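User: I'm putting together a teaching handout on how multi-component assemblies are represented. Below are the sequence lines for each component of a complex, exactly as they appear in our records. Could you produce the 3D structure of the whole assembly as structure tokens, so the students can see both representations side by side? Please keep the chain order the same as the input.
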Amino acid sequence: MGDKVVLGYWAIRGLAQPLRFYLEYLGLPYEEKRYYKPEEWFADVTSAPLNQHVLVNLPYIKDGDELVFESQALYVYLAYRANKPELLGQNPKEQVTLASVRGVLQDLFKSLITLFTIPEDQFEAKKDNFFNQEVLWIAEKLSKFLENQKWAVGDNLTYIDFQLFEAEEILRNYKPEVFTTLVGLKKHNENFANLPAIKAYQVSDKMIARPFYPPGMYRWG
Amino acid sequence: MENKVVLGYWAIRGLAQPIRFFLEYIELPYEDKRYTDPQEWFGKDDQTFNSQFTNLPYLKDGDHTVFESDAIYYYLAHKVNKPELLGKDAKQQTMVATIRGVVGDFRATFFQWVYGSKETAEAKKEAMLQETGEFFRVFNTTLERSTWLTGDTITYVDFLVWEYVDEFLVLAPEVITSKPKLVEFHNRISEFPQIKKYLENPNYIKRPFNWDLQAVFY
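Assistant: Of course. Below is the structure of the complete assembly, with chains in the same order as your input.
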């Protein structure tokens, strides 16, 4: 057999980028359905099989007849699909730590979105203050947490490391100088980028380097 | 010898209420520590933890403290040896993460209104009810297809959704009463003996759901 799973998302980094890295790392044969225009997504969402599901959204994984939605659920689904459940946390301690890091990381992503959706006429005036007061302190918490360990839950890689890397890439591209002080994030970022599957993917022609966010809707991306 | 776990949070329902329900459901003895004054927490208790993630809610178990509400359910389920409450197999664990994601999207929509401008709250209420109504429709349809939100056995995300169903039964009852499976789901959990007892306990917080100083609805 060996049907490929299909990852569906916009043709940007967004929520799917960590999932692309994840699929590469898992070594699962996969295809991408990249939506370049809202009309393309609307066409799919209003026809079978998507129109028969209740929770339809982007990103999704299509695996034969199976359809999975909600980005966090895709990491769970794919770990089992690739027979690598250790990426979900190998024991209760790792699972609890993973959930804690995920909670803090989600606050960081939320803050970044708020930053980049400051109204256009106020962005230049407000961006530095907002970054320093609403983004940096969360990034600092994560950075200090990571200073004394290799991966988010300790010695073992889990799916949350993939999402952490994306947050680091946003920070590194938006404000490169933060890595001078956020040494924990810098270290994690370098370790992750050096994973063979990640290193190879980043120089491949499948790699989307930019934009991080939908162009035209966000102040930066 | 005091070996109860301690749940710390503000004296509101908020993020802690489903955790309180979960603790009652698993029948784990606990202390429900409520911070009524921010100065009890900020600069005082929050300095006593040795963690980068110090925040409310927390779950203190002897020398160990867990932060982040979602992580607390994972900790508690393993503590009482009931990992099935996190999803008993790959399929249900995937569904737990799916529902949790949808709850996150619901919260983003709802709390933008709850903690938004008081001046425009009334004007924006109908649009908010439309959007949140969509989420409740999704939960209702899901319950038409399975006994619980993630399958045939209960998981912690059922308690997350119960809390918002309960809140909307006060805020905008018709959003819920128009969805029979949601009503039945709400009653089903309320009728668990340990939950029924908890609902009648004078310590049970009926209101406020949210921060009464800042929220447009609490």
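A couple of points students might notice: The two ends of chain A are 40 Å apart (CA to CA). The first strand of chain A starts at residue 5 and ends at 10.
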